[in-house]
Amino acid sequence: MTAAVSRLLLAQGTIHDPANDRDGVVADIWIEDGRIVAPPADPRGFTRIDASGLVVMPGGVDLHSHVAGPKVNAGRRIAPQLARRRPAAVPTIHATGAAYAALGYTTVFDAAIATAAAGVAHAELADLPILDKGIYLLAADEAPVIAALARNDARETARLVTAALAAGQGWAVKVANPGGAAFWVRCDRTEGAIMTFTPSSFGAGTRTGGNVAEPKPDWEMIVQVMGGGHSSRAFIGQARRASDTFDRAWDSGMPPLAGGLQVQVGPSLYRDIRGAGRAQTYRVTLTGLRPGTEYKLMLGRKLLYRAATLTDRRTGASKYYPRGGTYTFRATQETHEFDLRTGTGR
C-alpha cells in the first residue's frame, strides 16, 4: 500500500468473521501495511473510513467459476447481444471483475481450462480487474495421462500431471468427466464399460504417439459394431502418402484396452489407412462378443464413401454395400472375423 493509505480504520462496520467468533458484531478494524492490527495506543495517522451500516467480511474466494477461456468466449461469440444487456448473461472480462468486486470477492478461479488453452486463459485473466485469479487445468484429458493411468503407472501419471501444471501455471487439476474430450465410453452400461480413444479426437496434424504427420485421407469409412448395449468403432481409408509406419505410430499413442467389445481393422485397433489404389481388402476382427447376443456391424461414411463388399469369414456370406449399411449377425463365439473389400462393384 502507498504511504497515504498504509494505515486505515474501518469504523463501526458490521463484522462477519465466524472463523474468529465475530458474526454480526459492530466494531472497528485497524489496518496497517495491509494487515489487521490491534487498536493502536495512538490512532493519529490512520485514515478513517465510515463503515456504519455496511458489512465488513473477509474477501470472498470463488473456487469454481467459468470466467475465461474458450468455452466462455464461445458464448460471447454465439450471442454477443447478451453481453451488452444489464445484467449480462456472458459479461466481458472487465465487467466480470467489477461485478465480483461489488459482491465482496477478492479471488476467482476458473475451474476448467484445457492445457492447450492455458496461455490464452492467462492472457485474458490478466485483463480481469481488481481480483486475484487462477485456473484449474483439465490435465486428466491429456492422452499421455490417460495412457499412463491405463497402465497403472502412478509415477508417470504424477510426472505428467506435474509437468502440465507447471507448463500451464495451474493451481490444481480439474477432474470432471476425465478424458471426455479425448475418448469416448464404448458402452452404455456400467457393467464391462471400458474407455478408449477415438482417432478423430486427436484432430489433424502431428500425432502424440509416433510424432508422424497424418496423411489426409482421400476417403475414410467408419466401421462400427453395436450389440448388448456396447459399441466400438474404428476407421479405414486410403491416402496417397499413407504407410504402415504411420498406422503403427498412430496406435502407439493410444492407450491399451482392458477388454470388452472392440473392433480392429487390418493390423490396427483404431485405424487402418492404406496407400491409394483401386481396391483394398481389410481384415475386420471383432472381439469381446457375447455368444448368443445379436450384433450389428455398420459401415458408415466419414469422408467420401467408397462402395464395399463385406464377407463373413465364419459363414461365407457376402454382401455388397454401395453406400454403406448394416450387417446383422448373432455371435456364436467371442471373436468374429470379416473381410471388407473396398472400391469394388457387384
The tally of beta strands, per DSSP, is 21
Structural class based on helices, strands and sheet pairing = alpha/beta
Largest beta sheet, briefly?
Answer: 5 strands, mixed
Distance between the termini: 83 Å
Average pLDDT figure: 80
Alpha plus pi helix count: 6
Backbone CA Rg: 30 Å
How is this structure best described in words?
- The chain is α/β, with parallel strands linked by helices.
- The chain has three domains: 3-57; 62-173, no CATH class; 183-342, no CATH class.
- 17% of the residues lie in helices and 36% in strands.
- The protein is built from six helices and 21 strands.
- The chain has helices at 70-78, 93-102, 118-125, 143-150, 154-168, 244-252; strands spanning 7-17, 22-32, 35-37, 47-50, 55-56, 60-65, 105-113, 132-137, 172-173, 183-185, 195-197, 219-227, 230-239, 262-265, 271-275, 280-287, 294-301, 308-312, 318-321, 325-330, 336-342.
- The strands form five sheets. Strands 1, 2, 3, 4 and 5 form a five-stranded mixed sheet that branches. It has a five-stranded mixed sheet with strand order 15-13-12-17-20. A five-stranded antiparallel sheet has the order 14-16-21-18-19, with no helix packed on it.
- Strand 1 (7-17) and strand 2 (22-32) form a beta hairpin.
- Helix 4 (143-150) runs antiparallel to helix 5.
